[in-house]
Amino acid sequence: EVQLVESGGDSVQAGGSLRLSCTASGFTFDNSDMGWYRQPPGYECEMVSSIRSDGNTYYADSVKGRFTISQDNAKNMIYLKMNNLKPEDTAVYYCAADKRAFYYSAFDVCPTNSTPPQFGYWGQGVQVTVSS
Fold it and tell me: Which pLDDT tens digit goes with each residue over 32-51?
């Protein structure tokens, strides 16, 4: 069974930093595209960053220079280091895996771990709140 479990969400003040973690199991981690989406309140689900099986990384324009994605194949984990956080970064953040999660860069609503896998695999989400 594929499982993605996020951690590290918190409430911080603007300008602060957080590191989100995602622990993956149930699939061949180092052959899979992985990444992070987020869903701000009242907005669509958008891709924040991804790291592909070939090592290429992608970032949304809104987070370039502030967020860094990385992975640890030995631990089956990916991370999202978020610096200089802004109130507009407030969202539920989701870890996603499998190329099917990255065919599109946005969804009306982020899939979750209870969604059938036609959109890849997803975690349950973790809240990040940034106050001004």
Answer: 999 999 999 999 999 999 99
Q: Euclidean distance between the first and final Cα of the chain, in Å?
A: 40
Determine the Cα–Cα distance for residues 119 and 132; give it in Å rounded to an integer: 34
In this structure, which amino acid lies at residue 71?
Answer: Q
CA atoms of 15 and 46, how far apart (whole Å): 22
Tokens of 9: 């969400």
d(CA 115, CA 45): 14
CA distances (Å), 119 to each of 62, 65, 66, 114, 128, in order?
24, 28, 27, 11, 23
Residue pointed to by tokens 């070939």: 54
What average pLDDT does range 76-95 have in this prediction?
A: 97
The single-letter DSSP state of residue 129 is E
